[in-house]
Amino acid sequence: MPVRKKRSEEYIKFLGTAGARFVMINQLRASGGLWISAAGKNIIVDPGPGSIVRCSSSRPKLDPTKLDAIILTHKHLDHSGDINVMIEAMTEGGFKKRGIVFTPQDALEEGPVILQYLRTFPEQIVLLKEKTEYRLGDLVFQSSIKHIHPVETYGIKFDINGTSIGLLSDTRYFPELEEFYKTDILIISVVFNEPHPGIDHLCLADAERIITQVRPHKAILTHFGMRMLQVKPHIQAELLSQHSGVDVVAAYDGMTVGL
Ligand SMILES: [Zn+2]
Ligand SMILES: [Zn+2]
Prior knowledge:
This protein is α/β, with parallel strands linked by helices and 259 residues long. It has helices at residues 21-25, 51-57, 77-80, 83-90, 176-180, 204-214, 226-230, 233-244, and strands at residues 3-4, 11-16, 31-38, 41-45, 69-71, 100-104, 124-128, 133-136, 139-143, 156-160, 163-168, 185-189, 218-222, 247-250, 256-258. The chain has one domain: Metallo-beta-lactamase, Chain A. The model has no long low-confidence stretch (mean pLDDT 95). Residues 19, 76, 78-79, 170, 223 line the site of one zinc ion. One zinc ion binds at residues 19, 76, 78-79, 170, 223.
């Protein structure tokens, strides 16, 4: 799949590639999540802090009032910071009951991140559960097994025009990941360059293990922590390509992948 600068009809746009609190706080990379346009639907995944700003500063502009769905992989702030403003946008301030919010249950309970008064605005709030198929018009996606992360977390897998696309969200490594994320395009959250035992995030060695097992057509690294930025993600991606024989690239803010 070509990585294009120009927007095509069906695409994934990275509104952010920040992956840890200091990268987010300092906005060394943006934290706006992923915008997906496919099968006539517009979806935002994990609208973190600044997502709304990234939509309006995008060229061409992305219009959040045209969203059909918001998917939250988990409630951590770098993923959910702008979810409430996105719900307002999708429903035009609550005046149009429209759109679906897909979210783990714990984002609504115990320290909820979705404001109570907004919950009646969308057409539906659908709970993400393990290994479940969801439908948004013609667009089908599946949730992963539960990730190993401090809060309820799922990755997702889309099928768009016969191409499978995996979004591997925050998790500690475990071998079952490789089974679910057997996809053509695999987007992987790689926070660390070196292993950090005891912290539930992937490092480069985990990413290499997954990529070598899955062998996607293209792997895209994203969600970078401070140390990852210091060792330059594009250089690490190049090294990973050489080791694995798989086309591996590092995402950058504003990167668009045509589908
Ligand atoms: Zn995160
Ligand atoms: Zn997280």
